[in-house]
Every structure is written in structure tokens, then in C-alpha cells.
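SEQUENCE-TO-STRUCTURE ENTRY
===========================
Question of interest: how does this chain fold, as expressed in C-alpha cells?
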Amino acid sequence: MTTQTKPTKTLSPTLTNQLNQLTTLSSKIRLLHQNNLSRSEISNLLKIRYQHVRNVLITPVKNPK
């Protein structure tokens, strides 16, 4: 049995560059969310659990810059 995954969205070169400059996973999640990616798309793209993405997005930023 093979598992099928949905094709992930392709990111623009600008967004990819911005992602590479970020150091924390939380900041990457927030950036992708600001660019209208769903929680599922973010979790698939970053290869992390959906729950982690959800927790980051519902928790306020402690030290906003």
C-alpha cells in the first residue's frame, strides 16, 4: 500500500528567500501563514505536525519586534 500526498504549493523565490533567512521554526510558520498558506500546507511543507503549526498560530508572540 502506498500513501498518497497532496502536491504542495510551490513557493515564490522571494518567499523562499525570506524563509531561509529566518532562524526559528515559529517565525517560519508565521511567515507562511501571513502568505495565506493553510495549516495543513505549512505542516506538509516544513515536515512538522499539524498540531505544532496550530499551537504556534494560536499562541501570541512573546516579544514582538
